[in-house]
Design brief:
- This protein is α/β, with parallel strands linked by helices.
- The chain has a single domain (about 5-245), classed as Alpha-Beta Barrel (TIM Barrel).
- Helices cover about 35% and strands about 30% of the residues.
- It is built from ten helices and twelve strands.
- The chain has helices at about 30-40, 65-70, 85-95, 105-110, 110-120, 155-165, 185-195, 205-215, 225-230, 235-245, and strands at about 5-15, 15-20, 25-30, 45-50, 75-80, 100, 125-135, 135-140, 145-150, 165-170, 200, 220-225.
- The protein has an eight-stranded parallel barrel with strand order 1-4-5-6-7-10-11-12, surrounded by six helices.
- The chain is globular.
């Protein structure tokens, strides 16, 4: 069995780490390089960097910042935001990304997933899915959660898996920033439907929430932002708690 992963997320806007609630009410959360260095020391298993306005602003990811963070850390590093071609992905590989995350660009042109997987391998491409409830059904949202699509979350996830995605980063917009726990039913169904790893995101507010998502779903990773950024849940204490719950966790 894969050991569960604890993954801090750096949501980047204008070169700074930020955090919102339900994808809005954004506030500053600190310097991304200093946070990244701190997370390595605390024992984070991976790090995710998402340039949250790159797609909306129609620009590329902050490559220089990616280079600076990659230089400071020695854990797997996923980068997303504004990636719409194999060439974009190649630039980030050169800058130090271990994996890249695509969302809106893949919805616009699903072949992008296949192209990147063919060029770099499936293990390199993560498809991020921002899931929101529309009339009681989970739909895929794009442009940083600003725009709903007609795509069913479960069907879309299966499609990108068939195109070569190596992992899914699943964020429940309803739960994001609320600190009321992950979307367990959504995560459980999706993680059972797929044969690739699923990272749960959105809603972490306590150590118990991490235990819930690992015990009640097949998610192999859990991602959070503000509870880590503001020191509400120190990663070493979280890992100790999970080990005491007999959850296989990386030390």
């Amino acid at each position: 069995m894969l050991k569960k992963r604890i993954i801090p997320c750096l949501d980047i806007k204008d070169g700074q780490t930020v955090k919102g609630v339900n994808f809005v009410d954004i506030r500053n959360a600190g310097d991304p390089i200093e946070l990244a260095k701190r997370y390595v020391k605390e024992g984070a298993d991976e790090l995710v960097f998402l340039d949250i306005t790159a797609t909306v602003d129609r620009r590329k990811t902050f490559v220089k910042l990616v280079e600076q963070i990659a230089h400071e850390i020695n854990i797997p590093f996923t980068v997303g935001g504004g990636i719409s071609s194999v060439e974009d992905a190649a630039v980030l590989v050169k800058a130090g990304a271990d994996k890249i995350s695509v969302n809106s660009a893949a919805v616009r042109r699903p072949e992008l997933v296949q192209e990147i997987a063919h060029e770099f391998g499936s293990q390199f491409i993560v498809v991020a899915i921002d899931a929101g409830l529309v009339n009681g059904e989970w739909k895929v949202f794009v442009k940083g959660g600003r725009e709903a699509t007609d795509l069913d979350v479960y069907e879309w996830a299966k499609k990108v898996e068939s195109l070569g995605a190596g992992e899914i980063l699943l964020t429940s917009m309803q739960n994001d920033g609320t600190k009321k726990g992950f979307a367990l039913e959504l995560t459980d169904k999706l993680s059972k439907d797929l044969n690739i790893p699923v990272i749960a995101s959105g809603g972490a507010g306590s150590s118990e929430h991490f235990a819930d998502v690992f015990e009640q779903t097949k998610a192999t990773g859990a991602l959070a932002a503000s509870v880590f950024h503001f020191g509400e849940i120190p990663i070493p204490k979280l890992k100790e708690f999970l080990r005491n719950q007999n959850i296989e966790i990386r030390i």
